[in-house]
Amino acid sequence: MDATTPGPLAPEVLDRDDLKRALAEHDFAAVFSLVKKWGGLSQNRIAAACRLTPGKVSTIISGQQQVTSFEVICRIADGLRIPGRMVGLADRPWERRTETPDPHPQQPPAARLSVDAPWRSTATVHLAADLTRSDLVMDRRAATRALTGAALFGTPLLDSLEGWLQPSPAVAKGHHRGRIGIREVRELEGTARVFRAWDHRFGGGLRRKAVVGQLNEVSSHLEDHQAPDVERGLFQVMAYLGGTAATIAWDSGLQQQAQSYYLLALRAAHAAGDSAFGANVLAGMARQMLYQERPQDALELVHLAQKGTGPKAGPRLRALLHTREAWAYAAMDRTAAFKRATSEAEEALADAGADDEPYWIAYFDEAELTGTTGGRLLEMAREGARERAEEAADSIRRAVERRGPEAGRSYALDTIGLAECHFLIGDVNGAVDHTQRAVEAAARTQSARVRAQLGKLYPYTVGRNTSQRVADARTMIRDLLST
């Protein structure tokens, strides 16, 4: 059933008081029973409509299992065409949709950057122009379709990055003589810094087009013959903007698009001779692989970054790479290796001074390290090692205290993690307090990743014997996620 087909339930069924009450209380055992009785739907049809297995529907009806996942509640509402307001959600997309046909049915999502392109500066310029042009003309429908694009992984990705380790070849001369100087390059770099700072604090994609537009302008300057120092500066700005475009896309759930911009940023850093920022880009790509549950690929990317930078990596960058390494080990359940890599990160960060590294790595401080480490301990606790929950809470709490609400997205993610730690520990009152703070912090960001993490708290708030405070926390989560 697609979003334009009528729902399977007659209006008089949805208007029944007993069904309305069951939906409002999220009593899906009663909901499914009433839908079977008065709507004439079999368990198999309910399962197909809601993208559940018939066995799952059976256990829900029998009361053996409750629906606690926010995502599953959304699937039930959409599958049975239950208006969002009846289950405490905002209007669902199909409620607002008109029957106007798509005027651009064949428009593709953003182009994928070719992984087979040679590691030459001219190829990088052409790839940047093609990628940004495609992105700038992408409309909302194409952006929605782009959400389904998958990132490359495994051998096809890793083999394509070998060129990163080779020296950058000489730059070919452009067709026209460039008319900008170092001062204009510094202005472009200043703009790139502003975009990066904004994304780091607030997240989301509200300024994505502005970043992509600036990236397109830089690529047009590089099509001309520039002085060597100007050209290097422009490639460096391209790398910075590409990295920001990648994190914005990744934070918005556009995995394929994010990877394309990561690859562009890496190639631009290579052309600029900036191995340190290239290693930072590879760390971002490793994080993307970790969220995609590809820890071995993430580890390979980290090792590639470490090999490519060698002694050029400053202490903060080394610490960042060690934390990505530790993250991969934690995901692979290699506890001893996780502890070793975390200790190496702490040792590296202890050597960092106030102004000894580029601006783009300045954010990686003790708060970032403890927050990241706490997140990995939380993952271990979530997988069954509940004794890790106390340790995770201590680490994340230190990060929250050091960052403060002004850290925006990072503060929101830490607060969500701290709330989950308290749920796992069994401290329900503490968990509710942190959940309320997490919802307030999440509301101040535009980050889809923050909302996805907040959704993981929802199951902890669902149950037949939950207190009113927990029920209120559940309502807060639901209200924010449904907007």
Describe the fold and architecture.
By secondary structure, this protein is mostly helical. The chain contains 24 helices and no strands. The longest helix is centred in the middle third of the chain and has 24 residues. The chain is globular, with a radius of gyration of 25 Å.
List the helices and strands and how they pair.
Elements: H1 11-14, H2 17-24, H3 28-39, H4 43-50, H5 54-61, H6 70-79, H7 93-96, H8 121-136, H9 140-146, H10 155-160, H11 182-202, H12 208-222, H13 228-251, H14 255-272, H15 275-291, H16 295-309, H17 315-331, H18 335-350, H19 366-382, H20 388-403, H21 409-425, H22 428-443, H23 448-455, H24 468-481
Helix pairs in contact: 2-3, 4-5, 4-6, 8-12, 8-14, 11-13, 12-13, 13-14, 13-15, 14-15, 15-16, 15-17, 16-17, 17-18, 17-19, 19-20, 19-21, 20-21, 21-22, 22-24
- What string, H for helix and E for strand, traces the elements in order? HHHHHHHHHHHHHHHHHHHHHHHH
Beta-strand content bin: under 5%
Structural class: mainly alpha
The percentage helix is: 55-70%
Mean pLDDT: 84
Shape by Cα distribution: globular
Count of helical regions: 24
Radius of gyration: 25 Å
How many strand segments? 0
Terminal CA distance: 24 Å
Task: Profile the largest sheet.
Answer: none
Unreliable stretches, pLDDT < 50, 5 or more residues?
A: 1-5, 98-111
